[in-house]
């Protein structure tokens, strides 16, 4: 019997405030980057906008 590696759990969606706290970035900078289309936003079942921390980190590395 071979052990298969466990798949990684999906990355959670974060609100702008949660992402700002987790990444130690000002809230308004995440808001502005989303408004300018620099990071993708996700809208699930309500009108609240969500982001992924990995996409914000990628943007921060590229600048």
How much is the average pLDDT?
91
The largest sheet is: 3 strands, antiparallel
Shape: globular
Helix and strand string, N-terminal first? EHHEEH
| Structural class estimated from helices and strands | alpha+beta
Strand content: 5-15%
Descriptive report:
This protein has 63 residues and is an alpha+beta fold. The protein has a domain at 14-51. It has three helices and three strands, in the order βααββα. A three-stranded antiparallel sheet has the order 1-3-2. It is globular, with a radius of gyration of 14 Å. 8% of the residues are buried.
Keywords:
single chain, 63 residues, alpha+beta, 3-stranded antiparallel β-sheet, 3 helices, 3 strands, 43% helix, 11% strand, globular
What are the SSEs and their pairings?
Layout: E1 14-15, H1 16-23, H2 27-35, E2 42-43, E3 49-51, H3 53-62
Antiparallel strand pairs: 1-3, 2-3
Helix pairs in contact: 1-2
Protein name: Helix-turn-helix domain-containing protein
Organism: Methylobacterium brachythecii
Condensed summary:
This is Helix-turn-helix domain-containing protein. By secondary structure, the protein is α+β, with helices and mostly antiparallel strands. The chain has helices spanning 16-23, 27-35, 53-62, and strands at 14-15, 42-43, 49-51.
């Amino acid at each position: 019997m071979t052990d298969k590696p466990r798949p990684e759990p999906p990355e959670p969606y974060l609100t702008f405030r949660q992402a700002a706290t987790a990444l130690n970035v000002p809230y308004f900078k995440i808001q502005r980057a989303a408004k300018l289309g620099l990071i993708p936003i996700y809208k699930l079942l309500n009108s609240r906008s969500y982001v992924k921390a990995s996409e914000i980190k990628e943007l921060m590395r590229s600048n």
